[in-house]
Amino acid sequence: MGNRIPVHMDGTFIYEIVMETGFDGLKKELKNLNLGDRKVCIVTDSNVAPLYLEEVETIVSQCCKKAEHFIFPAGEENKNLDTVRNLYETLILKQFDRHDYLLALGGGVVGDLCGYGAATYLRGISFIQVPTTLLSQVDSSIGGKTGVDFDSYKNMVGAFHMPKLVYSNIASLKTLSEEQFSSGMGEIIKHGLIKDASYYGWLMEHASKIRNRDLETLSEMVLVSNHIKRDVVEKDPTEQGERALLNLGHTLGHAIEKLSDFRLMHGHCVGLGCIAAMAISIKRGMIRSEELSKLLTVMKEFDMPVTVNGLSPENIVLTTRSDKKMDSGTIRFILLEQIGKACVDKTITEAEMTEGLRHILA
Ligand SMILES: NC(=O)c1ccc[n+]([C@@H]2O[C@H](COP(=O)([O-])OP(=O)(O)OC[C@H]3O[C@@H](n4cnc5c(N)ncnc54)[C@H](O)[C@@H]3O)[C@@H](O)[C@H]2O)c1
Ligand SMILES: [Zn+2]
Questions:
Q1: Where are the alpha helices (DSSP H) in the chain?
Q2: Ligand 1 atom with least separation from CA of 110
Q3: Mean of pLDDT over the chain
Q4: In this structure, what DSSP letter does residue 292 have?
Q5: Alpha carbon separation from 314 to 111, 330, 353 (Å, rounded)
Q6: Which pairing describes strands 153-160 and 165-169: parallel, antiparallel, or unpaired?
Q7: 264: closest CA among 313, 212, 307?
Q8: Residue 107: CB within 6 Å of ligand 1?
């Protein structure tokens, strides 16, 4: 399959996703973007900077007129407009104009914030994604959704803004914590469930290599997941239909994440939401009941929680109502017709959700 995936919109080429096992290849990719008379500001966080900034900044400085950087404290709590303001300030002080570039070096928090900064500074400048977490390499860096949180509201302020390049260094996954890695697996298992049964089986077969972060296996995994996400966002870039399938496990997962005060990790909550969605699909006679125990086995292989303590199903369902309000009063719930095939359902009842949640509440 190679290590490059082009992304199109309305049939027009927009950008390429490139996967490598080091940062060396970034030089060639940046040269292709012709940045010779452009400035580039690398946006990164306080955890990623000590690991990778020096190496990346050296490469960037060889490919453009001047490399700068902006480092903000790591953590979702800093994915907000205050940090964006500081970024604007840096860009103004460094005299960035509308031809200059931003480069997001980090996880989804950095990518979302940097992308939003790029979408809005001077009505939009170009940016590059260099995702360094599993979640960002298979999910958040692709598809052009950018944004920040506002008070306690997640991703409340944002814009669609496509990057000029996504460059994933798979080897950067080696320094990721066990917990972050396992959380990323939640979105990957979801990809198998909604689009590709054989990939889902492959994940199970390669579990130990994946857990041990064997680079060849991880490269293949990131590649397949990127193909799946690319195919979905190409068909539906602004989430009018098909893209909703990526929300498998997210309606209930978001509610669990919120009620845990974000102590539980996003991918883990998505996994829990997938269990409940599968239980509902089974109850409706859409898929066979054996599939649920298979899913639990896969999730346990990747150290994902399969139950959650201290939450009531009623409270979780109540919390989904705020998502519903934001989507003109309907919940577009994602169910599974079979492994590898998901569908949108608008008829889901709160009673069904409550029943599905019983499978994950300890
Ligand atoms: N735009 C989208 O389509 C989209 C999709 C899914 C999620 N998201 C967003 O993504 C964010 C979550 O992304 P995330 O899970 O990558 O979180 P994150 O960016 O907070 O990264 C997780 C942690 O890992 C650290 N880190 C990053 N790379 C590392 C590395 N290589 N080695 C060691 N540590 C490293 C970070 O500093 C951070 O502490 C959320 O804000 C979510 O809303 C966006
Ligand atoms: Zn998600």
A1: 26-32, 48, 54-61, 81-93, 108-120, 134-135, 178-195, 197-205, 207-211, 215-235, 250-259, 266-283, 290-301, 313-325, 350-357
A2: 19
A3: 96
A4: H
A5: 34, 18, 9
A6: unpaired
A7: 307
A8: yes
Query: Ligand 1 within 6 A of 287 CB?
Result: no
In this prediction, residue 152 carries a pLDDT of 82
At residue 239, the pLDDT reads 80
Question: Tokens 């499978």 label which residue?
Answer: 359
Quick one: tokens of 94?
């460094």
Does 323 contact ligand 1 (Cβ within 6 A)?
no
Residue nearest to atom 19 of ligand 1 (CA): 107
Q: Relative to the alpha carbon of 138, which ligand is closest?
A: 1
Segment 249-260 mean pLDDT: 95
Q: Does 139 contact ligand 1 (Cβ within 6 A)?
A: yes
* Bridging pattern class, strands 12-20 and 165-169: parallel
Q: For residues 146 and 310, what is the distance between their CA atoms, to the nearest angstrom? A: 33
d(CA 81, CA 153): 12
Specify the pLDDT at position 338.
Answer: 96
Nearest one of 141, 176, 195, 162 to 19, comparing CA atoms: 141
Handedness of CA 348, 354, 358, 362 (dihedral sign): positive
Per-residue pLDDT of 64-81, as tens digits, reads 999 999 999 999 999 999
In short, whether 237's Cβ falls inside 6 Å of ligand 1 is: no
Task: Say what the pLDDT of residue 325 is.
Answer: 62
Phi, psi angles (nearest 5°) of residue 158: -170, -175
CA of 231 to the centre of ligand 1 (A): 22
Q: State residue 1's pLDDT score.
A: 54
For residue 110, the CA-to-ligand 1 centroid distance in Å is 7
Specify the pLDDT at position 147. Answer: 98
**Whether the Cβ atoms of residue 172 and residue 129 lie closer than 8 Å to each other:** no
Return the sign of the alpha-carbon dihedral for residues 322, 325, 330, 334.
Answer: negative
Q: Is 217 in the pocket of ligand 1 (CB under 6 A)?
A: no
